[in-house]
Design brief:
The strands form three sheets. Strands 1, 2, 3, 4, 5, 6 and 7 form a seven-stranded mixed sheet that branches. Strands 8-9 form a two-stranded antiparallel sheet. A two-stranded antiparallel sheet has the order 10-11. The protein is globular. It has about 290 residues and is an alpha+beta fold. The longest helix has 14 residues. Helix content is about 30%, strand content about 20%.
Amino acid sequence: MAAVILGCDTNKLLRWDYRAVVEHVAESGRAVERWCLEQHPDAGPGLSPGTEAWLLLCGSNEAGSGLIGHGVVASEPYQLAGTGEWFVAVAFDALLALGEQIRPGILGDALPRDHWPKAGGPSLVALPPSYEPPLRRLWRACGPTTAGCAEVVGGSLQPDAVSTVQVSRYERDPDARRVCLAFHGTSCAACGFSFESAYGGNAPEALAVHHVVPPDMLDSGYQLDPIADLIPLCPNCHVVAHSVNPPRTVSELRNMGSASSPVMRGEVVTALALKAQEDARRIMDGG
């Protein structure tokens, strides 16, 4: 299943203490919440870790409705003991504050009303694949943004591919991500954790693709090299990398990890990787 719509109302958001969840995502990059399937998982869309999930506020009027969040399914469906209810964990990576959701009038053709969860029906419905690209473009334009951040423009690796655009923090060029993971593998480059070995299947979707040099330190004419400029990190190492400015290098993360763990993953460092690290440190040092 490529993507699903999660329908909710303001009462559900208030039960979550939604404001605190929004702040947590803004600070740490993600928040995991339990989502009730309200039906047996075999009766609804097929769900697996890595399924993209869009949070849709379904209010009684236009002002109380709209697209409000994005995340990915982080677990297989599971039954809560003693309740008979089925749940799935969803890792939200971008949320809008209540009242700032993308209204139905702006959603327009990107997510027509006939694809919203129906009142009284399941709160989770499949999103037709043809609606995924326009919905991502709309979220990029109207969702949570980081002003003035140089970011890879989706679908291009040409010399002008890095531009100053308004993007949500989870957006990355999918082609560059595929090339990066194909070369570097699906284990965290810093700590060696493998989502695929631990959880199987689509679990590597949880990996972050980290810019060796922060995008806002590159000029608009820089040509992205997805092998030398990008590296896979687990969410924990990614947060630690960005907890300082400029971000920590992969070597620094490895040294931090080895100080607290007697066993660290070994690997052969290629000349290309070494040069990329040298260039990154030179750029961040202003050289």
